[in-house]
Write a structure and sequence with these properties.
Blueprint lengths: L2 H40 L4 H41 L2
Amino acid sequence: MDSAAVVDLARQALWMTMLISAPLLLVGLVVGLVVGIFQAATSINEQTLSFIPKVFAIGLTISIMGGWMINTMVDYTKSIFTRIPSLFM
């Protein structure tokens, strides 16, 4: 296996990680920002006020985007398995 193949595999793995985690991270960021603005505007400093909405929003995102996430990971895994024979020749 040459170094170019290893670099390509690492690049694809990082891209898949970013692609799969992006919806969850963006939803968490947006909800955290909205809750932070709400807390600053109302001077409410309750810790659970920032945690609970994020948990619900991320759970909702997983329920909506979960099928796409799983399909993307299955496709990526299939492509890795089909490349295995060519990696060692």
